[in-house]
Amino acid sequence: VQLQASGGGLVQAGGSLRLSCTGSGITFSRNDIAWYRQAPGKEREWVARISSGGDILFADSVQGRFAISRDNANNTVYLQMHVLEPDDTAVYYCVLGSYWGQGTLVTVSS
């Protein structure tokens, strides 16, 4: 199983980014997918989750600003981030069960 997160970058506060998580070796449609993030010097934090049935949950810190969706045909999950804040700066990881992908860095400048 391989997971790869992509789409990170540098954005100004208030901007938007869309992260993608693409997987191989496993069928996404049968699994819940989560996003976590880890900011410099901080512990890893759960961000959002989409279940195999499409149920969605967000951390309070991103509720109303982030959206999550999945494209099962392409084994991809998206994290759409809006109204980004400097506190959103972190390495973002997608997670499927016990599998963690390589993260993608999001940097939000003030």
3D architecture notes:
By secondary structure, this protein is mainly β. It has strands spanning 2-6, 9-12, 17-24, 33-38, 45-50, 56-58, 66-71, 76-81, 90-96, 99-100, 104-109. The N and C termini lie far apart (37 Å). The mean pLDDT is 96.
Structure class? mainly beta
| Number of helices, where a helix is a run of at least 4 consecutive DSSP H or I residues | 0
Biggest sheet layout: 7 strands, mixed
Average pLDDT over all residues: 96
Termini, distance in Å? Answer: 37 Å
The proportion of residues forming helix, as a percent range, comes to under 10%
Radius of gyration: 13 Å
Number of E-type strands: 11
| Gross morphology | globular
User: Low-confidence parts, pLDDT < 50 over ≥5 residues?
Assistant: none
Strand content: over 45%
Task: Report the order of strands and helices.
Answer: EEEEEEEEEEE
Please outline the helices and strands.
Elements: E1 2-6, E2 9-12, E3 17-24, E4 33-38, E5 45-50, E6 56-58, E7 66-71, E8 76-81, E9 90-96, E10 99-100, E11 104-109
Parallel strand pairs: 2-11
Antiparallel strand pairs: 1-3, 3-8, 4-5, 4-9, 5-6, 7-8, 9-10, 9-11
Tags for this entry?
110 residues; mainly beta; seven-stranded mixed β-sheet; four-stranded antiparallel β-sheet; 11 strands; globular
Tell me briefly what this model is:
It is built from no helices and eleven strands. By secondary structure, it is an all-beta fold.
